Each structure stands twice: as C-alpha cells, then as structure tokens.
Amino acid sequence: MNSGTLVGSLIFAAVLVVVVTIVIQLMMVGWRRRAARQEELIGTLPDVPVEVGAVITTLRGVYVGCTLGTEWTERITAGDLGYRSKAVLSRYPEGILLQRIRAKPIWIPQDSIAEVRTERHMAGKVAARNGILAIRWRLPSGVEIDTGFRASSRDEYDGWVEEAA
C-alpha cells in the first residue's frame, strides 16, 4: 500500500467515525425529547400497595416495554419504561406486579386493566407465535397503554388470558 492510499484510508476512517458519532448523538437527543413529551402525557404510575393478597400465578421472563394505546410501534420512553430487562410478572387479586431488574416495579391495579392478550409484536420486538403477553391498562392520567412481557415458557399464557376475561 502506498502512502497516498494509506492517507486516504485514514481520512475515510476518521470521517466515518465522526459521522457515526453524530448519528448516535442525534438518536440520543431524539430519545430524550420523546421521553420529555411523554412524561407530561403519562404522569405518575400507581404506587405498589403495602399489602396485597396471595399470589395467584407468576411468570418469569423479559419485560418488553410499554406502548401508547393501540400503536404497537409507539414505544414509551418516559422514566425507565423504555428499557427492556429481565422481570417477574405476578398476578394478585388486587392487580398485577411487574418486578424488573435494575428498574422500579410497575403496579397495575385490577380495576384499571382493560384486557390481557397475546401479541406477535410490540415495541419493536417481534415474537414467533403470539409470544408476547400484552396487558392493556389505563393510567391515573387517563391514558391507555400496553405493557409487554415475554415469558420464558409461553405455555403459561392461556391462564393469564382466561383469568382476565
């Protein structure tokens, strides 16, 4: 390789690094702006009650994320709702508790649950065969959201969907 080719390659590599850095920064700015807009819309999440009844059923798996209403691509990024994590989903007579790793738990009161169903896709995540458990519920602010959970064993979804009906 001659010196002209080497210099050209180094300049190209430097320009490429700068372009990639700018694109990543712009993506981060967009994520923060979306989160700021959604925080006003979402408001505060319900607090986890101090005491609840006995656990009805539990699933282990992955918290997929939350989306606004019927828009499975409109991912909620406010607070820590936008980050996927390992989680445990527990059903109580009073509601559903989603305990996430390195994130605040999400409490879904029973009276705010509209439906529990299975979905093939949600929040940019696509499953093979209705592999995502989607819980549609109404926040205290009045906004309806879907909370997605992908269990380690998808055979246990039927009990969740039947119980909610």
List keywords for this structure.
PH-domain like, 34% strand, alpha+beta, two-stranded antiparallel sheet, 2 helices
Give the secondary structure arrangement, pairings included:
Elements: H1 3-42, E1 57-68, E2 85-92, E3 95-100, E4 106-109, E5 113-119, E6 121-122, E7 125-126, E8 132-138, E9 144-151, H2 157-164
InterPro entries: PH_bac
Domain PH: 42-164
Transmembrane segments: 6-29
Please describe the biggest sheet, giving its number of strands, its sense, and whether it closes into a barrel.
7 strands, antiparallel
Rg for CA atoms:
21 Å
Mean pLDDT: 85
Instruction: Name the assembly state.
Output: single chain
How does the overall form come out from the CA principal axes? elongated
Name of the CATH superfamily of the domain at 57-151 = Pleckstrin-homology domain (PH domain)/Phosphotyrosine-binding domain (PTB)
CATH class of the domain at 57-151: Mainly Beta
Strand numbers in spatial order across the main sheet: 4-3-2-1-9-8-5
Structural notes for this entry:
Keywords: Membrane, Transmembrane, Transmembrane helix. The protein is α+β, with helices and mostly antiparallel strands and 165 residues long. The chain has a domain of 95 residues: Pleckstrin-homology domain (PH domain)/Phosphotyrosine-binding domain (PTB) (PH-domain like, Roll). The protein contains two helices and nine strands. The longest helix has 40 residues. The termini are far apart. The relative contact order is 0.17.
